[in-house]
Amino acid sequence: MADIQSQRIMFFDTGPVISLVMSRLMWLIPELKKQYGGKFYITPAVRLELVERPLSVKRFEFEALQVLKLINDGVFEVYNKVPKASASKLISLANSSFKINGKNMDVMQSGEIESVACALDLGAEAVVMDERTLRLFIENSSQMQSLLERRFKSEVTVNNDNIQQFSQMLKKISIIRSVELVAVAFKLGLLDQYVPPEKNGASTLLDSVLWATKFNGCAVTDDEIDEAEKFLLR
After folding, report:
1. pLDDT bucket at 26, cuts 50 / 70 / 90
2. Helix (H), strand (E) at residue 12
3. What is the C-alpha separation between 114 and 109, in angstroms, rounded?
């Protein structure tokens, strides 16, 4: 364990990998790992969602094979030592924090929770996750409540004690999204081969890849994309 914890580590949830695959940017993952110089882990639940399940659906078979190749090549490593007690406590807290019509709402999935529990256990630097739920849970539970009420068109009640416990457990976790991975890749020059020769070509490229991740599942706002472009192009 000490040897593992002395290394740089990031855990990947399902969403960002799918976003990069669908955006035809999957090839960035091994390049980013080289730059990072650490471990890229996925959990068994994430592997199930990325490989085994889509392999049984014709539409998604090739996407699954692309992920499987990254696993076979050692780019992604499957971390099997999931701390079950920690994961169980986290998912229990998360899925009893919001109620609709008197019933608990399942707001977190097993892949997300496994990734977070493992990251906490190993002292990982970040969890790569595109779903906005966890970020709102930690940073702005009232906005999370509003989001759920809009989504289900019904009043949602909140258990603030559970939210506080959940947030306290996760306060040391950094969450990054596929859009931020793409932004880093752009900054590192990994996408330079796609810069068109026209004036403002770099701007066109950056805009295209950031919007690609948004349209393929990354929870990022239009304003966040605008801010990223201004920062990266200044």
Report:
1. very high
2. strand 9-12
3. 9
